[in-house]
Design brief:
The structure holds two protein chains of two kinds.
Chain A lengths: L4 H12 L3 E2 L4 E3 L2 E3 L3 E4 L6 E7 L5 H17 L5 E7 L5 H10 L1 E6 L6 H8 L18 H9 L5 H11 L3 H13 L6 H5 L1
Parallel strand pairs in A: 5-6, 6-7
Antiparallel strand pairs in A: 1-4, 2-3, 4-5
Helix pairs in contact in A: 2-3, 6-7
Chain B lengths: L4 E9 L2 E8 L4 E5 L6 H13 L3 H6 L15 E7 L10 E6 L2 E3 L6 H11 E2 L1 H5 L1 H6 L8 H10 L1 H11 L5 H7 L1 H45 L13 H8 L4 H26 L3 H36 L14 H56 L4 H11 L23 H46 L3 H68 L11 H108 L5 E6 L11 E6 L8 H4 L2 H18 L6 E5 L7 H17 L3 E6 L2 H10 L8 E9 L5 E9 L9
Parallel strand pairs in B: 3-11, 3-12, 7-10, 10-11
Antiparallel strand pairs in B: 1-2, 1-4, 4-5, 5-6, 8-9, 12-13
Helix pairs in contact in B: 7-17, 8-9, 9-17, 10-17, 11-16, 11-17, 12-13, 12-16, 13-15, 13-16, 14-15, 16-17, 17-19, 20-21
The chains are: A alpha/beta, B alpha/beta.
Chain lengths: 194, 813
């Protein structure tokens, strides 16, 4: 079976996310199961992902195949979790419900247009890796950010003083600022007379 | 070091009765049990032994400690093993629970303890209210969510920078912060103003000095044209010496003397000038002769007649002046007035005597009448006899005694005399007598008065009679009147002639006097001319020409003296002015030197002030740059953290669990750069555009999902101090689709992101499904499932099952 265009997109997305495609038919307990595409998870995930194009197969057939596969997996005491990705028009609710009893069902429809990629990845989100921001101590490095923006300054020492004052709160910053601004003013006119 | 958890042993805690041991040493621990079996108790025991409190219980009941031990037991006990870093053996942590008292120390302290309570452990009751709890605060700035976001952003330090540096943004705030700045600014302004004032004064003084120099030079040139001074810009002391010597004064003194001489000459010449004419003298001589002739003529014609008359009158009036001794008019007038007054006197005496005669006649008449009247009164009095008054009183006293017609005096019957009743008769008699008495009185008074009048008239007549003139005297008076009248007539006739005489005499006297004066003036004129001639010589003026009058000469000399005095006075004034100006110039020059020095000093001061103000300005600019950078950094951090760290991960999580929900919850970004950062939640549509608050936009199930994913997102957004997720039945209200997705998410967190997951689930199929999803997927991976049940006797039982990895036979990896 030659994968249709939407099926290819699903397969591409999932393989990019680390899943590996398998040849069909899948033979479980000596029973061959034919699907549009078939993928398994990486080393750390026992996923079995079946991609079905609802355009090319009647609903009843889909249900029979999925329920059959589920029973076969039980039979061999497989611990793989089964995920059905439905490409094309979603089947009737009763069918989806039946599928949901034995597997995780992800209906992606037929994503088209500009938002297709996002829509597809949203639909398959649960299968995609979770990208976490660099969760360092604090997500932000406030002083680093400020310093990058200051580029070159002739007041390196003052900047350092003000930064360390900021750790103690605004009042300390204000006092430091006051000290910095006050210090040059100590030259009073009276000093000249002497 | 990440602490490890090995196992927890729980004895008589909350709904757990007896002792249960729950192993925890696996990446995933699933706890199952029917409702009321004690799943939640296991998780809250874990929270208690780790943090020393059960946060969710504390939220609802501050006195919850009293209910921690199982109500049937004397005490409760929790023992946690593990918690080292896995390498070293660590003493187990043990908490003892008696009534309301927890003894023992919790395993975690400080931030880590807080992290567990807030970021790792999601109690069952908390989930439903999570959004509410997170955003609960009086001010949005204080909500736990805001606090979290702020910690996450590290904004406190940036805000400290921005707030602390705020004063540099506005110079007024800076002045408030650094009052010394204002002081220096003010001082600088003072110095600047002083410099400007000094400069302006200096320029004015220089202009004035240059004007003074020009003026002094001009004056010196006028005063001493023969001794020009070589003066540079500075005028020397020699100028002042030159100006101080007044050479004109002696000349002026001499001139003043001449002027006085001239004045006295002029005064003397004035009287002379009037009678100077020779013609006048001739006419005066003629006049004198004429008037002398006229006087002689008058004397012969009139004077003698008048003199004779006055001599005649002098018999009666011996003191009359003669015509010769006085002027004829006076003599005539004196005589006339004397004659007139005596004539008046005589005439008056005669008239008076006539009046007295008439008065005497009148008085005689009055006397005669008075005598006749007295005789008349006496006659009437004579007709009234007796003492009528006494008789009437006696009869009136008798009247009460008259009771009948019989007279009480004589006893006779009055009826014999008259038919009139006696009483009436007596009464009328009394009345008549009283009337007569009144008349007597009245007549008496009349007589006295008339007698008095008569006596007065008689006295008056005697007095008048004594005033009458004798016939001789009257005759003499009349004769004198006639005589005097004649004298007066003649005097009156002579009156105009006497007046003419007086005028002739006056004219003659005048003519004579004038002639004498004219003769004296010739002599004086000669003397004056000599004196004037001398003055001409003294003043070096042209001598007195013969044709020139004395007056003209004096005038000429006076004019000369005045012009000389004016010239000398002008020189003196000029000298004085020049001297004053010279002194002023000296003062100006001194002040100019002082001002120049002062300006130099002030300029030094100002440049010092400028320098320090410039340093301050530089630092202020630097501080401003920091504040600006901090504000920019803040905006950048806020945007980045909200978008990438929070909203991205939350969206990712939420979309995984609710792939069909078009609205996705999100943190609302602060709109303005300096807006205080608050964590406000909103929803955004997947296709773009903002929706309302999550509570308004999401179904109850998805709202729950939003809360759950928010909890996990917050957990993932920070560095995991504890990489644990302890969830108490978070899937109760999820439908199957959500559960399947959630299971995949948990697997991802466990297998890919190393989070240890401890979760309680009460629904059996769900528990089995999760056990399947979270089954060990690789070597070393492990899953522990624990069944919590109760025995018949009510003792809690915990039945753990360990599942290790087995290669999957169905599908080759």
């Amino acid at each position: 079976m030659i994968p249709s265009q939407p099926v290819s997109r699903v397969v591409n997305l999932l393989t990019t996310a680390g899943y590996r495609q398998r040849e069909t038919p899948l033979i479980v307990a000596s029973v061959p199961f034919e699907f549009a595409a078939l993928l398994v998870g990486s080393e750390r995930a026992l996923d079995l992902i079946v991609v079905i194009d609802t355009l090319t197969e009647p609903e009843v057939r889909i249900r029979q195949k999925v329920e059959g596969l589920s029973r076969a997996l039980d039979l061999v005491a497989s611990r793989r979790s089964l995920t059905i990705v439905l490409v094309g028009p979603p089947p009737r609710a009763v069918i989806v419900e039946a599928l949901s009893r034995v597997s995780r069902v992800l209906s992606v429809g037929t994503p088209t247009g500009a938002g297709a990629d996002l829509s597809l990845s949203d639909a398959l989100a649960v299968l995609l890796p979770l990208e976490l921001a660099d969760a360092s101590e604090s997500v932000a490095d406030p002083f680093g950010e400020v310093r990058r923006r200051l580029k070159h300054t002739q007041h390196e020492k003052d900047v350092g003083m003000i930064f360390s004052a900021a750790l103690d709160g605004p009042e300390t910053v204000k006092q430091t600022l006051r000290t910095l601004l006050r210090e040059p003013l100590d030259v009073t006119p009276e000093a000249i007379d002497e | 070091m990440i602490p490890q958890l090995n196992a927890i042993s729980i004895t008589d805690f909350r709904s757990l009765r007896g002792n249960v041991i729950v192993p925890l040493d696996a990446p995933v621990v699933l706890i199952h049990g029917p409702n009321g079996a004690g799943k939640t108790s296991v998780l809250s025991a874990l929270e208690l032994v780790l943090t020393g409190q059960v946060l969710e219980m504390r939220r609802t009941d501050p006195g919850y400690q009293a209910h921690l031990k199982n109500r049937d037991a004397a005490y409760g006990k929790i023992v946690l093993t593990g918690l080292g870093n896995g390498a070293a053996e660590v003493q187990p942590h043990e908490l003892m629970l008696t009534d309301g008292v927890i003894s023992g120390t919790p395993a975690l302290i400080g931030n880590v303890s807080r992290f567990f309570s807030e970021r790792c452990y999601l109690a069952q009751a908390t989930l439903g209210r999570l959004l509410e709890i997170y955003q609960d605060a009086k001010a949005r700035e204080d909500s736990p969510l805001t606090r979290f976001v702020k910690d996450l952003l590290g904004l406190d330090h940036l805000d400290a920078l921005i707030d602390g540096l705020h004063p540099v943004g506005d110079v007024r705030n800076m002045r408030r912060l650094v009052p010394e700045y204002t002081e220096v600014e003010t001082a600088r302004a003072v110095v600047e103003r002083r410099i400007a004032e000094s400069r302006s004064r200096l320029s004015r003084l220089s202009d004035e000095a240059s004007g003074l120099r020009t003026s002094i030079r001009a004056k010196l040139a006028m005063l001493a044209p023969d001794a020009p001074l070589e003066l540079g810009v500075e005028l020397s002391d020699s100028a002042e010496n030159l100006l101080s010597q007044d050479t004109d004064e002696p000349q002026l003194v001499a001139l003043t003397g001449r002027r006085r001489d001239l004045a006295s000459l002029r005064q003397r010449s004035v009287s002379l000038l009037v009678k100077e004419s020779a013609v006048d003298q001739a006419s005066a001589e003629a006049e004198e002769t004429a008037s002398g002739e006229a006087l002689k003529t008058w004397w012969v014609d009139v004077g003698k007649v008048l003199e004779a008359l006055i001599d005649e009158l002098r018999v009666s009036f011996p003191d009359l002046p003669s015509v010769a001794s006085t002027d004829p008019q006076t003599a005539q007038y004196t005589a006339l007035s004397r004659v007139g007054s005596d004539l008046d006197r005589c005439t008056r005496a005669i008239t008076q005597d006539d009046a007295v005669a008439i008065q005497i006649d009148a008085l005689d008449q009055a006397i005669a009448q008075g005598r006749a009247r007295i005789a008349l009164v006496d006659e009437q009095l004579g007709q009234i006899t007796g003492d009528t008054e006494a008789l009437s009183r006696a009869l009136a006293a008798l009247l009460p005694h008259v009771h009948s017609e019989y007279c009480p005096v004589c006893g006779r019957d009055y009826r014999e005399v008259s038919s009139e009743p006696l009483v009436q008769r007596v009464s009328s008699h009394v009345a008549r007598l009283t009337e007569q008495a009144d008349r007597v009185q009245s007549l008496g008074r009349t007589r006295v008065q008339t007698t008095d009048d008569l006596a007065k008239s008689e006295r008056d007549r005697d007095a008048a009679a004594s005033k009458r003139l004798t016939q001789d005297a009257r005759g003499a008076l009349k004769a004198r009147v006639s005589e005097l009248s004649e004298g007066r007539r003649r005097l009156n006739e002579l009156a105009p002639l006497a007046a003419t005489g007086a005028s002739i005499i006056r004219r003659e006297v005048q003519a004579r006097r004038r002639l004498a004066e004219l003769r004296g003036s010739d002599r004086m004129s000669l003397e004056l001319r000599a004196a004037v001639g001398e003055l001409c010589l003294g003043l070096e003026q042209a001598p007195l020409a013969t044709a020139e009058s004395i007056g003209d000469a004096i005038q000429r000399l006076e004019d000369y003296v005045a012009s000389r005095e004016r010239a000398l006075g002008d020189r003196q004034r000029l000298r004085r002015e020049a001297l004053t100006q010279h002194r002023l110039l000296r003062e100006h020059e001194a002040e100019i030197r002082q001002l120049t020095k002062m300006i130099a000093r002030d300029t030094d001061v100002q440049s010092l002030q400028d320098a320090s103000l410039q340093v301050v300005e530089g630092r202020r600019e630097a501080a401003k740059a920091i504040a600006r950078a901090a504000a920019e950094a803040r905006t950048a951090i806020v945007g980045r953290v909200f978008n990438s760290a929070l909203n991205k991960i939350w969206r990712d999580l939420f979309v995984r669990l609710a792939p069909t929900e078009p609205f996705v919850p999100a943190f609302r970004l602060p709109q303005a750069a300096d807006e205080p950062v608050t964590a406000q939640l909103e929803t955004v549509h997947r296709d773009g555009g903002r929706g309302g608050a999550p509570g308004a936009m999401l179904s109850a199930g998805n709202l729950n999902t939003a809360a759950l994913t928010l909890f996990i997102a917050l957990h993932l957004a920070v560095k995991p101090q504890l990489p644990w997720l302890v969830l108490d039945d978070p899937v109760q209200s999820m439908d199957e689709v959500h559960i399947a997705q959630f299971a995949a998410l948990l697997r991802m967190l466990s297998k890919e992101h190393g989070r240890k997951i401890i979760m309680a689930v009460h629904e059996r199929p769900l528990f089995d499904y999760l056990a399947l999803e979270l089954t060990p997927a690789f070597a070393g991976d492990r899953l522990i499932t624990v069944e919590i049940t109760r025995s018949q006797a009510g003792t809690s039982l915990a039945e753990p099952t360990y599942r290790n990895w087995e290669p999957d036979s169905a599908v080759a990896a």
